Amino acid sequence: MRAVVLSIGSELLDGHLTDTNATFLAQELTGLGVELLGVCQVGDTLDHILRALQRAWEDAELIITTGGIGPTADDLTREAIASLLGEPVTVNPELLEQIRAFFAARGLVMPEQNAKQAWLIPSAEPLPNPIGTAPGWLVRRDGHFIVTMPGVPREMMRMWREHAVPRLIPYLGGGAIRSVTLKTIGLGESVVEQAIADLVAASYPVVATYAKDDGVHVRITAQAANAAQAETTIARVAQEIRSRLGDHVYGDETTSLGTAVLEPLLWLRWRLGVVEVDSGGRISNVLVEEPLARDTLAGCLVYPCWPASDTLTLETLAQEAIALGHVNLERADCLYAVVIRMTPGATPDRTRGEAILRLQTPAATLERRHQVTSPASEIRRRVSLWAAEFLRLALLQQARQRLPG
């Protein structure tokens, strides 16, 4: 099957938004064995959307649209599809009631213009939207499929994976398609890909790497005669990847980075105190939102800068941060200092960042240092990943040394 993705919205053409939806769908289609012929960004003009749909209809069997299904006058995707197929739109009472209930659950009355989001055409079935007001469409007509989804990424991704893909799979050659994502930290994407180069190059299963905010992800996708065969293939390849990348693999798509960092503390029955200086509180934010934080986190101290930090060594800064943790985080069994010192360069992107990571536990004191030249925000982002990686690996080491098995 061949596909075309249409990203609809004038804000994409104005440069105010980055089209992350198209990137996501391109990756998904590759995993499904669908040939993506192209991606087209279209503004909120009915004639332009219709022409893009007509070209896509001529070129591909599957058209995927994102955006343009809101309640306002410039949301025109439904109108364009109806025009393309020459079908009338009607308000579906069941969809309308679902949208009213969505507003009522939030103590609101549905604006009448939202009734537009309950439109259907005869060739379309609705795709549920559990976290938004705009249902999608799955259109089947003359050997073609049109999947129409919201432009909001979190709504689109759930609708695609939970509702669109299961409906499309029977038309993608039969069998079952399964995928697993392994999450890694501490290695760059090129290093990860080099370590599994033969698996990436193999035609089956499909293995691909993606750089994300929480590390590098490795996705494995297999299509087989049945689910058991696909899952067996994925399990075999996943085990091989884990053996090659070792502790750099911290989990799968169900594992958050924060959970992976905090789990060893649960095994050790330690509470962690965190002190951050000029890091924007990034590592604290990764940890405090996790359910495990209740049982493993004693507290966090975040400082935007340190008085007279230019005159102190990084070693002294780390010592002072740990000392503050002892005074203010009395419930902590171990303390973690993440300290960054910024030195302005000739331009903002030449800012020099020095970082020291120090972990003090009942068993040992461990330390790591980093240097990077980049904009301040990028320095903080990189240091937060290094800090998460170092903390997790150090705690894992402590757990292995202290716990049987």
Q: What characterizes the major β-sheet?
A: 6 strands, mixed
Number of helical segments?
A: 14
Instruction: Write down the domain tally.
Output: 3
User: Tally of extended strands?
Assistant: 17
The proportion of residues in beta strands is 25-35%
Shape: globular
SS-based class? alpha/beta
Low-pLDDT parts are none
Structure in words:
The protein contains 14 helices and 17 strands. The chain has 405 residues and is an alpha/beta fold. The protein has three domains: 2-171, Molybdenum Cofactor Biosythetic Enzyme, Chain A; 176-252, Alpha-Beta Plaits (2-Layer Sandwich); 257-402, Maf protein (Alpha-Beta Complex), CATH 3.90.950.20. The chain has a six-stranded mixed β-sheet with strand order 2-1-3-8-7-6, sandwiched between helices. A five-stranded mixed β-sheet has the order 14-13-15-16-17, with helices on both faces. The protein is globular.
Topology:
Elements: E1 2-8, H1 10-13, H2 20-31, E2 35-42, H3 46-59, E3 62-66, H4 77-85, E4 90-91, H5 93-104, E5 119-120, E6 124-127, E7 136-141, E8 144-149, H6 153-168, E9 176-184, H7 189-195, H8 197-201, E10 206-212, E11 215-224, H9 227-245, E12 249-252, H10 257-268, E13 272-277, H11 282-288, H12 293-296, E14 297-303, H13 314-328, E15 334-343, E16 352-360, E17 365-373, H14 376-402
Parallel strand pairs: 1-2, 1-3, 3-8, 13-14, 13-15
Antiparallel strand pairs: 4-5, 6-7, 7-8, 9-11, 9-12, 10-11, 15-16, 16-17
